Amino acid sequence: MGKTPRPLTFLVSPELSEWPEFAVLRAQGHVIGTEQDVRIASLTVFDVDLILAPNAWRMDAQHRKYLTQAIAAARKARYSKET
User: Fold this and answer.
1) What pLDDT, in 10s, does the model give residues 22-47?
2) Same domain, residue pair 5 and 45
3) Does 10 lie in the same domain as 41?
4) Which of 15-24, 37-46, 51-60, 64-73 ranks highest by mean pLDDT?
5) Closest CA to 17 of 59, 69, 57, 53
């Protein structure tokens, strides 16, 4: 596989960063970074095309009607671990 003409920037949770798929994506020219890389490169989350993490949610104008459900699910995922 060659380089992609339209590379993307990924922000990947450290626990997912060792997936072998990311080596393939890097070889294609995509930028794969962790939160440490974001701090070093002075990128913001808004410079990233894809965020991959166990509890990541994608929200844009099309998903606005699901904001309440996303908040409820995120709270459940985060706080159910404490009980």
Assistant:
1) 999 999 999 888 877 666 555 566 67
2) yes
3) yes
4) 15-24
5) 53
